[in-house]
Amino acid sequence: MGQQQWKKIWVGSAGNMVEWFDWFVYASFATYFAGSFFPSGNPTAQLMNTAGIFAVGFFMRPVGGWLLGRVGDRKGRKAALTLTVTLMSASAVLIAIAPTYAVAGYGGAAVLLVARLLQGLSVGGEYAASATYLTEASAPHRRGFASSFQYVSMTAGQIAGLGLQIVLQRTMSDEALHSWGWRIPFIVGALGAAVVFYLRRNMLETEVYETVEGAESGAAQERGTLRALWLHRREAFLVIALTMGGTVAYYTYTTYLTKYLSNSAGLPKQTATLVSFCALIVFAALQPLAGLLSDRIGRRPLLITFAVGSTFLTVPIMTMLRHAGSFWPALGLALLALVVITGYTSINACVKAELFPTGVRALGVALPYAIANALFGGTAEYVALWFKDAGAESGFYWYVAGCAAISLIVYLTMRETRDIDLLASGAVREPVPTRTVP
């Protein structure tokens, strides 16, 4: 991979990190600000309210996927990436200044809701624009490796959020964190988004997009349209199905893990946060290695490994996590779960991008992926809390395993995408560079 390709990957990943920092700090700090926007009472009910607003953000992601996917296909990947970070910055500012229930009643919750809607729009386009950009910016035989940096940067954003949470937990009282300290990460996120806006304004467009844009200038009005996407509806439905198991498992062991360890396993909040922090560092380091492996052996073997592991290991892992009792057992189980999920997270971005032609690639990834996340990923935490509130928490474990089982069927029947030519509209094979032994 050349210097220009590395530069594109760096700029795309840095922006993605800030986007997902803003997205995830909502979830990681929810235990501190849940009582600020809703009446006092049952803590689980307060978390369900904030989780419900968290899920609403996911339901805006299909809208964001459509709007920003269209921008990405018609105006370029750079334009879409710049717009997404602008929306995310605005949402972070809104949350940072939102009034509490004691000051404005449910008005504060309304501001929180608007901010999450903006975040949903932003992330709905960010995932696809980033996945498309990283896949197109890399060398053909390194697409798995390059696109794996999407989840490296996503995880880095969450690690940064958890790291900030750990610092605040150790430097501020619990009362101060519940009162006003939870606003700090959203201020940091807004400042970070401003820096990324500058970086993305000066980023380079991908050669794949520029090549197709020049060759299809006469048919530009068809790029990024729902009519064009309908011609590839089989691939769109495939994205929904292959995302289902992965997104539920990912949000279970990242976004929801800290709350689960605190509320169900009985670990102190500081210990639960530290478990997630350490596990995610290892998880991020695994992504490029798995991406490289997929460039050698293909995408399907990794996806199948994830689905088999998630189907049969979710129930025992979650059951043992509930009785972990201390830091090291919880960390070991969390790492086991994240190693399994790596088979999906490391390559799912390039797999989806490889399914579509360039003229509809951003929209083709964005809209069906956002729909799958709205239905399954965004509701995972709420479903988990619903099962817990109903006194049947183990039902959620089986729900996660069932979603993975459905995706397993898809992985077993889908085609391999590693050698598909991104410049071709069909499944045209492109040669993989071979190495000669001197």
Briefly summarize what is shown.
This protein has about 450 residues and is mainly alpha-helical. The protein has a single domain, classed as MFS general substrate transporter like domains (Growth Hormone, Chain: A, Up-down Bundle).
Radius of gyration equals 21 Å
Query: From the helix content, strand content and strand pairing, which structural class follows?
Result: mainly alpha
Tell me, briefly, the overall form: globular
CATH superfamily: MFS general substrate transporter like domains
Give the number of DSSP strands.
0
Q: What's the helix-strand series?
A: HHHHHHHHHHHHHHHHHHHHHH
Strand content: under 5%
| Biggest beta-sheet profile | none
Helix content: over 70%
The CATH class is identified as Mainly Alpha
Overall mean pLDDT = 87
Quaternary structure annotation = single chain
Fold topology:
Elements: H1 3-28, H2 30-37, H3 43-59, H4 61-74, H5 77-97, H6 101-104, H7 107-137, H8 143-147, H9 149-171, H10 174-179, H11 184-201, H12 207-215, H13 226-230, H14 233-253, H15 257-263, H16 269-297, H17 300-322, H18 327-345, H19 348-354, H20 361-377, H21 380-389, H22 394-413
